[in-house]
């Protein structure tokens, strides 16, 4: 596609154009390195110049390798008011829309691909079972190169999973479980290794924490992650503060990424300023490194050609767009990604959950009574002001947080659809919908707490010890 002069460039987003230019540049370099015929090289160069011109026309700026259009994303939700725009970066998610972020526009802006029915059906055929509810319901809604992962799997080639957690507090909330619930399912259905990065170094750099406290949070969060049910023989959990000093492969990949990304590029991608500490500027390379199998020589026997699949929330995509840009230049495969929507705060999808606000979400340490009180008192309602109005006009599931939470955690599709119909028609009242959510979350959290009690310090140590897993490479 990238070298086709007939492709209609005017319909591409700035980021898609950027990726086309990058791919074409890689092709030109490969042709020159392979001493291809002159006319073939000349045609590829002409296409590259044409793409660069289109990029400049669209963005008003010259193409710079490794510096995509700014990733602090503003998405207009069909209005002209600035306050009605969505704002997304790796640290901040803001929207004034009670329905939440406009994910279709975010896909266009980020240049990713929508997870459509065809892809979901292909996943179902590959694994021979019903896809996870997160796929069925569009909770994981966007991807990069998932088709390549399926190609590899269907051809009996291995891949591995990588996800992570920034340990900013001792207690995790239910929203933090989303990537781990889905990653556990992926690991089970595809039977592949998993690495989980705990970015305690990042939290030390960004938060008012000591290194000791950040590491303590990492170990506590590891217990919650282990309690999700990961297989110790197939999973390696690591703290950056620990692992970076012990793995030559990991640090070498960090250095390679650092050499190929300039200060101007990370400023453009992440919005860093001249007053930010140099640790922040270099951190993106640390989050990039687990995307390469050679960062884990004990697992992959030093092999560098094993592709990585990263399930994560869409706000983490800027890190991996940078990684995907660098990967070919350091001889590594580009990681593939699966993006999830954001988990809404109790107060509504337009507000952000905060570990410092105990009422913004349901925490994994909450008692059944706390869960009930929080939902009844704080969960934003899509119901009407009076029972009479609600019976007449019905509720709005698009903005009702209790229904949103049930979309994440209620397994039964038919039951979820019944609740939607009943609430929309006015048959089901807000209090009754909240009661369904309470009865769904209370046993789920209680079961998690029971599993966490079984996780010992010794078990955490075993998960976090660099070692060979139950796979041959």
Summarize the structure.
The protein is α/β, with parallel strands linked by helices. Helices cover 50% and strands 10% of the residues. Its EC number is 6.1.1.2.
CATH class value of the largest domain = Alpha Beta
What does the main sheet amount to?
7 strands, mixed
Roughly what is the average pLDDT, rounded to an integer? Answer: 89
Quote the beta fraction. Answer: 5-15%
Silhouette = globular
Specify the structural class: alpha/beta
Distance between the termini: 33 Å
How are the strands of the largest sheet arranged? 4-5-10-9-6-7-8
Number of domains: 3
Topology-level CATH name of the largest domain = Rossmann fold
Which regions have little confidence, pLDDT < 50, spanning 5+ residues? 1-7, 71-83
How many strand elements? 10
CATH homologous superfamily heading of the largest domain? HUPs
- Note the total helix count: 21
Please state the second-level CATH architecture of the largest domain. Answer: 3-Layer(aba) Sandwich
Radius of gyration: 23 Å
Helix content: 40-55%
Write up what this structure looks like.
The chain has 473 residues and is of the alpha/beta class. It has three domains: 46 residues, Helix Hairpins, CATH 1.10.287.10; 257 residues, HUPs (Rossmann fold), CATH 3.40.50; 87 residues, Tyrosyl-Transfer RNA Synthetase (Orthogonal Bundle). Helices cover 50% and strands 10% of the residues. The strands form two sheets. Strands 4-5-10-9-6-7-8 form a seven-stranded mixed sheet, with helices on both faces. The chain has a three-stranded antiparallel sheet with strand order 1-2-3, covered by helices on one side. It starts with 13 loop residues before the first helix and ends in a 10-residue tail after the last helix.
């Amino acid at each position: 596609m990238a070298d086709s002069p007939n492709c209609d460039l005017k319909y591409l987003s700035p980021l898609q154009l950027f990726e086309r230019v990058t791919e074409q540049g890689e092709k030109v370099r490969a042709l020159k390195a392979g001493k291809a015929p002159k006319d073939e090289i000349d045609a590829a160069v002409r296409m590259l110049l044409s793409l660069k011109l289109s990029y400049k026309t669209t963005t008003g700026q010259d193409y710079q390798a490794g510096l995509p259009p700014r990733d602090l994303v503003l998405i207009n939700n069909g209005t002209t008011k600035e306050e009605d725009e969505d704002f997304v970066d790796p640290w901040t998610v803001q929207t004034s829309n009670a329905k939440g972020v406009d994910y279709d526009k975010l896909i266009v802006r980020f240049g990713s691909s929508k997870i459509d029915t065809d892809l979901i059906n292909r996943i179902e055929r590959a694994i021979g079972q019903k896809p996870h509810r997160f796929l069925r319901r569009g909770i994981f809604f966007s991807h990069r190169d998932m088709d390549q992962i399926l190609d590899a799997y269907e051809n009996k080639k291995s891949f591995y999973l990588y996800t992570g957690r920034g340990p900013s507090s001792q207690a995790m909330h239910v929203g933090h479980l989303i990537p781990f619930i889905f990653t556990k399912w992926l690991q089970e259905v595809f039977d592949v290794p998993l690495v989980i990065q705990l970015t305690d170094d990042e939290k030390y750099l960004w938060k008012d924490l000591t290194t000791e406290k950040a590491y303590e949070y990492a170990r506590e969060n590891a217990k919650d992650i282990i309690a999700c049910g990961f297989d110790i023989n197939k999973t390696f959990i690591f703290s950056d503060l620990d692992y970076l000093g012990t793995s030559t492969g990991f640090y070498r990949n960090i250095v390679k990424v650092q050499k190929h990304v300039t200060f101007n590029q990370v400023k453009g991608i992440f919005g860093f300023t001249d007053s930010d500490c140099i640790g922040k500027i270099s951190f993106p390379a640390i989050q990039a490194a687990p995307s390469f199998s050679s960062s884990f020589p004990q697992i992959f026997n030093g092999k560098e050609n094993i592709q990585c699949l990263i399930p994560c929330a869409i706000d983490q995509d800027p890190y991996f767009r940078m990684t995907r840009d660098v990967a070919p230049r350091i001889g590594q495969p580009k990681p593939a990604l699966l993006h999830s929507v954001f988990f809404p705060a109790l107060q509504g999808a337009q507000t952000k959950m905060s570990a410092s606000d105990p009422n913004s979400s349901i925490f994994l340490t909450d008692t059944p009574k706390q869960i009930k009180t929080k939902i009844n008192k704080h969960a934003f309602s899509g119901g009407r002001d009076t029972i009479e109005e609600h019976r007449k006009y019905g509720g709005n599931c698009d903005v009702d947080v209790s229904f949103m939470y049930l979309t994440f955690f209620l397994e039964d599709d038919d039951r979820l659809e019944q609740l939607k119909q009943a609430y929309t028609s006015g048959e089901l009242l807000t209090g009754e919908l909240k009661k369904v959510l309470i009865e769904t979350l209370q046993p789920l959290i209680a079961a998690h707490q029971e599993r966490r009690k079984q996780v010992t310090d010794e078990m955490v140590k075993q998960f976090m010890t660099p070692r060979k897993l139950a796979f041959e490479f």
